[in-house]
Amino acid sequence: MNIVTPRLRLRPLSLDDKHWILTLNRDPLWLKFIGCKSIFTLQDACDYIARTNAQRDEWGYGLCAVECQSTGNPLGVCGLFNRFSFRCPDLGFALLPEGRGKGVANEACQGVMAWAKQQGFDFLTAMTHPHNVASQQLLVGLGFHKHGFYADKGFDVQHLYWLKF
């Protein structure tokens, strides 16, 4: 998954991303809405990147680094996950503070959605924490429709969204 949008480049994570991945996993909004993933050290960040890339290698999709094309600076992550509960991937995203409020998540998600459609997926899911209103609004703006709730071990009950292409 290498995706280019007008302002962004989405690429597979590399071990060189470990510093900002650690920062992202310590961000208060990440902890509030995504939860603690036990990433406390640079080695933990490397392990997270390795797990993410292993999923990409196995399933053909995964989480990507989102970076500004003009500066190369990291802005966050966006990509697709296999939740094993559906026959389609799940869209996920999280931004560093410097990427928020600038349309970055919208643009990155649109790029991932276009890629998914080109790969032949006929629908996507997405989930948000019940109090994450900004992400819920983004998903609705992208064309997702709320489809109830999703509960799985390891995280709180989530609002479930679907998008049919």
TrEMBL record:
InterPro entries: Acyl_CoA_acyltransferase (IPR016181), GNAT_dom (IPR000182), N-acetyltransferase (IPR051531). The keyword Transferase applies. It comes from Alteromonas australica. Signal peptide: none annotated. Keywords: Transferase. Residues 8-165 form the N-acetyltransferase domain. GO terms for molecular function: acyltransferase activity, transferring groups other than amino-acyl groups. This is N-acetyltransferase. The lineage of its organism: Bacteria, Pseudomonadati, Pseudomonadota, Gammaproteobacteria, Alteromonadales.
